[in-house]
Amino acid sequence: LAQKMNIDFDLKEAMHSFNLAYLLDPTNSDVYWGFGAIYMTLGQYEKAKAQYEEGLILDPKNPHLLTDYGTYFMAQYYKLAPVDSGLGMINLDAAIQFLTKSYNLDSTDQNTTFKLSIAYWNKGDCEYAWKYYDECKALGGEPITEAYTVDLRKKCPRKED
Q1: What is the pLDDT of residues 98-142, one digit of tens each?
Q2: Residue ranges of E strands in the chain
């Protein structure tokens, strides 16, 4: 309960801070990135999507917005794939599209390279799953979990593993 209270408080504080930032400069696309991240954390995906789209109107080359917009589509993939694989794959392809746009702007973002690896792993494209995994690892590998490494090796074994 204490942890939930801290998360709720942190989200309220974050929303308050982004509201202040918006009042100071509503043209700052990172404000919309922050709002979107909060809504994603709360599971309010359509509100998150709207914030990401608003921010991308202001700055279509904001790599953080592009990565998190791709993350929105990954969440939709996970939600839809079990019940409608066609719609799930449409969302997975959209995720890859926006993550790739972000990667092309900033290939050093570990969050983006890790999510690209996961997206390609979900798609069954082992070559690209390993490519982005290795790039993320070379950048420090902070977001890589042991569970994902195990799953990647299981689904996409390499000769050297």
Answers
A1: 999 999 999 999 999 999 999 999 999 999 999 999 999 999 999
A2: none
